[in-house]
Amino acid sequence: MHVHYRLHQPLPLDARLQLDGFTVLHGVSGSGKTSLLRAIAGLLPGQGEPWGGWPVQHRPVGYLPQGCALFPHLRVWQNVAFALDGSRRQRRSRAMQLLDELGLAWLAERWPGQISGGQLQRVALARALARQPQLLLLDEPTSALDPVTRGDVIDELLIGIRRSGVPALVASHDLQLATVADSVALLADGRVIQQGSPAEVFRRPMNVAAAQLLGISNIHSATVVGRHGALVELDCGGLRLHAYAPADLGWHSEVRVAIAAEAIAVEPVRKGVPLTLVHRRREGLCQRLWLRSAAGVTMQALLPPLADNDWQLGDMLQLSVPSAHVHLFACNARGAMPSAGRGSTQTTAAGIPSSA
Amino acid sequence: MAKASWIYWIGALALMVLVLPFAGLLVSTPWLRMHFQPGDVEAISVSVLYTLLALSIVVVFGTPLAWWLARCQFHGKVLIDALTLLPLLAPPLAMGLLLSMVFGPYGWLGEPLRRLGLELTNTPQAFVLAQVYGAAPYYIVTARAAFEGVPRELEQMALTLGRGPWQSFWRVTFPLAGLGLASGLALAWVRAMGEFGIVLIVAYFPQGIPVKLWTNLQDSGLDAVYPLLWLFFIVALPLPLALGLLSRRQPVY
To answer: Which residues in chain A have Cβ-Cβ distances shorter than 8 Å to B176?
Structure first.
């Protein structure tokens, strides 16, 4: 399903999306994710396809707002039966069937105030599915979940959605949810800047904004100083990096590089460019290091779990980055490489992978 | 606990003061010599019948207004808010005078209406009119608060689930605002039943309980009011008391 919506209030937005299966719309808070969902549901004025201009009640969407908004005066099964017509008995048996499919039949007689956050979400899903929508819209489904049970709740929600066969658009700033989606769309500056499978998007962010949204912490300027086949050599504040680049990227070109902290390996300095360890922080089993070059460029490195070392602040270390993990962007306004290397997905201007 | 015990004593004292007049009624009622005055029974039927009529009018017209005030935002809404508060804040006697200026026999609206056959002085219609003005503001203010207490998101959910605005109102807004609407209704009932100031000026006749109590007191003294006073409480209080207790009870959800 192709979605294209334009909004002026509460913020200007012009978003195109291709929806197949479970699509996560990823963006920072305030980027308009919720507004886009509400516009598609008809709850905010906007123009676009599908269902542009239709009254809310005629749009075949199932909307799950943040917090689920179950009707507090109705029991769980009555919530699910809300969209159903027919006799009380018919409505009840259909509602029970929907609840049963999501493993919730035992909650039918409860009030919404008496069930957990994850259960609320699946009840809201059952309620939305009752009207046989063509599209599900979920707003931040993971934001209110208990961190301990969060993984299980997401799994159950995903299973429920996949089994229903209804495509779902899920607004979220939760990167973990993006990794398990069928498709990820990145929303920034009022438009979708990139869309693709999580593997594609995480492997090749289109531009600096996309890299930032994907949580890549090292974004710096660099200059092309050499070429070896498909690889270019870069000078990034004294650091030497190698990256795959299109053939038309010439010497002395100014570029931006983005490197995920996880992709950087750190070792005691031997013959590489020395960097000073300026800050360190434990993150669970992992360790995050801040390393500064002589020219003042700071790199963050996230060491793998249980990596052991006795480095002290002020120690000189060197780093190595696999070329595939150095993302290269032009310094123009859009920040996209003309034809980002290695024959990866070609993307159209709107950031949607073309099927050609 | 022990430290705060003086709070309970003050509370108990306040409660005693509040209940004192009712206890006094029990004590001073001349139970054996008590008998109705001529016209007492008619006064009861006038009060009950016309209060029901006035409340229906208040609910039918007041509910949409309350909903509109709760849901719509526009420039100059403060002005509308102030307008709805005016009849609430006007002293009843002043309100009665205003009504007689407008609807009275020589009022600028009363005269043309009279020519059309609608007399709004000392008629049942005038009585109902007075009750409506006395009770409507209380109902509207309470109902508005009740509607404002219903999360808009729930009404929107009803729409996304395929229900039209009308069905959404009846299936979501109304049940969720129900207790608030009920207390508004209870308040309006008490105001309409007990309305004296406005009624006295606009509709001395037909006499409902409050005006009849007053004339009994004037004509025959305190002893003449007891039977009607008892009946007044018996008739006027059960509905609001029940609704009040109902809205006090925590709902299950």
So the answer is: 71-73
| A66-120 pLDDT per residue, tens | 988 999 999 999 999 999 999 999 999 999 999 998 889 999 999 999 998 888 9
Do residue A73 and residue B161 have CB atoms under 8 angstroms apart? no
Residues A169 and A83 in one domain: yes
| Spatial separation of the C-alpha atoms in residues A308 and A287, rounded to whole Å | 9
- pTM of the prediction? 0.80
Same domain, A226 and A130: no
Do A193 and A56 share a domain, yes or no? yes
Residue B251 has a CB neighbour count (10 Å cut-off) of 13
- Nearest-CA distance B159 → chain A (Å): 5
For A150-191, give the DSSP string. Answer: HHHHHHHHHHHHHHHT--EEEEE--HHHHHTSSEEEEEETTE
Helix, strand, or coil here: B247?
A: helix
If we measure between CA atoms, which residue out of A162, A198, A173, A196 comes closest to residue A18? A196
Task: Encode pLDDT of A260-304 as tens digits.
Answer: 998 899 988 888 888 999 999 888 888 899 999 888 889 999 988
CATH (domain of A15): 3.40.50.300
Residues of chain B contacting residue A73, judged by C-beta atoms under 8 Å apart = 175-176, 251, 253
Residues of B whose CB is below 8 A from A65? 153, 157
ipTM: 0.80
Q: Print the domain residue range for A239.
A: 217-354
Tokens of A162: 């996949």
